[in-house]
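Batch job 17 of 40 flagged for manual review because the log was empty.
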Amino acid sequence: QVQLVESGGGLVQAGGSLRPSCAVAGRTFADYAVGWFRQAPGQEREFVAAISGSGGSTTYADSVKGRFTLSRDNAKNTVYLQLHSLKPEDTALYSCAADSRYGYLTSAARTAGRYDSWGQGTQVTVSS
């Protein structure tokens, strides 16, 4: 397992932008695929986006495609989730997770069970 720490959430008006980040402690960070999930109060956790260890492959939920961009800087052991055109329905606790077994995106990359290490999350709140 690895340790993940999210930051960069906050309160923003609809249409605004935020860039949460996920710092990962681990000597082989580039070997880990990383995913982001979100959970709003009273709702189930849902997949947002995932990125391969090299950063060469990404996948997004349909609800965020075209608005969110996932990237990583392996020299800084950090993954960035750029959020644009935010909507009130994007309000949730955003958590990152690492898959230490595979560096590429598997068919299960959108499934929470694929990931074996999780951060505590960062709150994103979008006001209307």
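Reviewer: the log was empty due to a logging misconfiguration, but the result itself is present. DSSP finds no helices and eleven strands in the chain. Unflagging and moving on to job 18.
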